[in-house]
Amino acid sequence: MSKHSFGGPWTFIKLDILNRYLSFFNTALQRQPNAEKPFDRVYIDAFAGTGECDIKLDNGNSLTIAGSAKIAIEKTTPGFHHVHLIDVDAKHAAQLEILASSNQDVSVTVYKNDANAALESIISKVNWHQTRGVVFLDPYGMALNWATIEKIAKTRALDVWYLFPLNAVARQAANDFTKIDSGKADSLDRLLGTTDWRTEFYQETAQGSFLAEGKTMITRKFGNAEIASYVHNRLSAVFHGWVSPPIFLPETGSPIFALFFAVANPSESAVKLSKKAAEHLFVMLKNKKIGRISGEAVTNDGQNELF
User: Fold this and answer.
1) Is 50 within 8 Å of 303 (Cβ atoms)?
2) Who contacts 256 (Cβ-Cβ below 8 Å, separation ≥6)?
3) Minimal CB count within 10 Å: which of 91, 97, 199, 200?
4) Cα–Cα distance measured from residue 266 to residue 155, given in angstroms and rounded to the nearest whole number
5) What pLDDT digit, counting tens, does each position of 17-48 carry?
6) Residue 190 CA from chain centroid, whole number
7) What is the pTM of this model?
8) What count of other Cβ atoms lies within 10 Å of the Cβ of residue 169?
């Protein structure tokens, strides 16, 4: 299998969290709403890659690990009834087809398409009264539209792990508002689903130069933490179940991503179950029991188990 090279030690952390949650989710729902006719369970990977990835370690070496698609198909027990794998890259999609064909016990559909278009198509065709699922959103840059997030939330049936591109937003939202051209502004509008960031992120400040006396400039007042909080509020407005506070990755230094978990199902029992599981994973992460990498060895305390 051709590998997808990206990321760093934080990559295994997000994948280890996903791995544990998927097995928990299927175990918890395998007899829901009843043993005679349980929900159909689906997994949707919007930026699925190739199934394997090479990550760079802090010591300069690289390590090959199972990617999200392979985790969902081969490492999740009990399994999903159907797995949807999306990637716009033709070479990635071809590798996903190989992965799908080599695992006949799992129903897998591969989409070589834009993630937003493919997600809209999948969501429109599934009977969400009889289906529950998990969506993994690990976008390439700022490729995910807010309108797609809203469609996912409206299913009232999906749990979502969203690796928000925090550093990409900080780069596009320049400190000096006048440096944001129309293309960057449009990208931020699509990602955040609003133009309000223009007034939320920025403030007018007086220029310090004597020659500029009496003039003001518009500068960004939001740092990474404030941007992540803003996104949390945006997500909470559309996911009426629950949205976790952001988990910053990598764990040290300047964060590149903010990992969110969101529950679309507003049912009290569904929220309680999913929230308990996610919060337990976050405690495990804090206690360094999630996806530790030492040298070239990956260590964890039960990769396929939540607890």
Assistant:
1) no
2) 10, 165, 166, 167, 249, 250
3) 199
4) 11
5) 999 999 999 999 999 999 999 999 999 999 99
6) 17
7) 0.92
8) 23
